[in-house]
Amino acid sequence: MKVLFAAGEAVPFCKTGGLADVAGVLPVALKGMKHDVRVVLPKYRDVDVHAYGLKPLDVVLRLPLGDVVETAGLWEGRLAGKVPVYFVDAPKYFDRDGLYRDGNKVDFSDNDDRFILFSRAVLETAKALDFRPDIVHANDWQTGLIPAYLETLYLLDAFFLPTASVFTVHNIAYQGVFPKNTLFRAGFSWSDFTPDRLEFFDQVNFLKAGLVFAHGLNTVGPTYAREISSNPVFGRGMEGILSLRKDFIGILNGLDRRIWNPSKDPHLARSFTSANLAARKDCKTDLQREAGLDPDSRAPLLGMVSRMDPQKGVDIILEILEGFLKEGIQAVFLGSGDPEKKEALRGLAKKHPGRAAVVEGFNDPMAHKIYGGADLFLMPSLFEPCGLGQMIALRYGCVPVVTPTGGLLDTVEPFNGEKHTGVGFMAQRPEASAYRQALAEAVSLYRSDPAAWRGLQQRGMSLDFGWGKSVEAYVALYERALERKRSIPR
Q: What is the pLDDT of residues 287-313, one digit of tens each?
């Protein structure tokens, strides 16, 4: 099967969130199953041409944008040395600091034009390279217009007659909502500005375009699929559309086990396995040293690797953390995001030197050290489509303490001491009091029953979060999308 995979970001080239992790691994996994996969990304300023060995192609794309025609070039690279990646080079739109926001965390005012241009470029790239895909796999609002284009402006384009579209929602909270005059710059007409197509409260919604027009539709976890299709709190206005799409499913993300492997991780002080957890103590000592914490092997060490964002439950942590620090517990936080949240965490670190530390920005080696050295992983998300943090933590023997939502419900079985089952601790509600209780139970077990704790770690490390089953589910989704495309009367 030929698959054209389009996303606004992908590791290792550019990243703001979990979409990048999926876009950097799923195409490689599909390639491993003998599918012909190509990836298209914007050529942001962050994309290091020299580090990734990118080369310019002798291609010029002509892309309509309202009443003008913009041009863009293409650069080519490789993902994991296997999958061709094409970068849309339009400096006017992508050569700037930040992917979607400026340095003040404010959305770029022309994000609508930027991703109209990119969505058109994805399809024109396929034509320029004579790569006729069976499936165009679009991801999140940045590429939501692609399924709409295939069913409108490109409907009679002979090149795409056999092509079906699949759209994946990674986080429905981000929808790409713009003024209604965006409709015309995107090439649509008033007939498309209706509640059953692109209109959303008298505006244009890019994510809605993908939900309405895609031949196949999924999100990144079974529980999140149920939440956003049935509950307005989670669905953010899209629950009505999703409830009508009976083909809408959840496919859990996987981990790149080449990168996340404690037995071969170069960032850890010592490698370890579930059968050799004693070596993990050296990783904890190394983390304490790197983070500036007191060297204390007996102190329960909490770790968090996350965007500092209300969605991730940072407010819950801020409400309960000091009480735990006063009881001799340590904590280390890694991430970027809301300046006020980061400043509040830094304030706690200053108030409790040697007990708490904040490491800012995207620091990949430190992330590995936290997963490999912390005893408990904090993930009090208010909602969580899938979540990779808890999966990585489990693989590294770092016991997660989570809230009952989305992918956390899909992946973290709560500890049961009587039955000797479970791999983590789950609060009863995504609230501070409930999370405090769950964390207290985890700390109590860590301090009182080393054997039970070791069993908890080993059960978590034995779980298989690889991409195998997920890739099979995506291939099945592609096949159903093709069947649906063929069944539509033309």
A: 999 999 999 999 999 999 998 888 999
Q: Which residue has the tokens 């209604």?
A: 180
Q: What is the reported pLDDT for 456?
A: 97
Side-chain-facing half-sphere of 188: CA atoms under 13 Å: 25
CATH class of 2-254+468-487: alpha beta
Q: Are 345 and 367 in contact (CB under 8 A)?
A: no
Q: State the Cα torsion 150-115-13-476 to the nearest 10°.
A: -30
As a whole number of angstroms, the distance between CA 38 and CA 84 comes to: 5
Domain 277-461 has CATH 3.40.1440.10: no
Global confidence as pTM:
0.94
pLDDT digits (tens, 9 = 90+) for 128-161: 999 999 999 999 999 999 999 999 999 999 999 9
Q: Domain ranges for the chain, please list them.
A: 2-254+468-487, 277-461
Edge-to-edge strand ranges of the sheet holding 330-335: 356-360, 330-335, 301-305, 376-379, 399-402, 425-426
- List of long-range contacts for 190-196, beta carbons under 8 Å, 24+ apart: 192/148, 192/152
Determine the Cα–Cα distance for residues 147 and 136; give it in Å rounded to an integer: 8
Q: What is the pLDDT of residues 359-403, one digit of tens each?
A: 977 789 999 999 999 999 999 999 999 999 999 999 999 999 999
In terms of C-beta distances under 8 Å and separation of at least 24 residues, what long-range contacts does 100-106 make, across chains too? 100/8, 100/16, 100/142, 105/339
Confirm if 64 and 75 have CB atoms less than 8 A apart: no
Helix and strand element counts for the chain (H, E): 18, 18
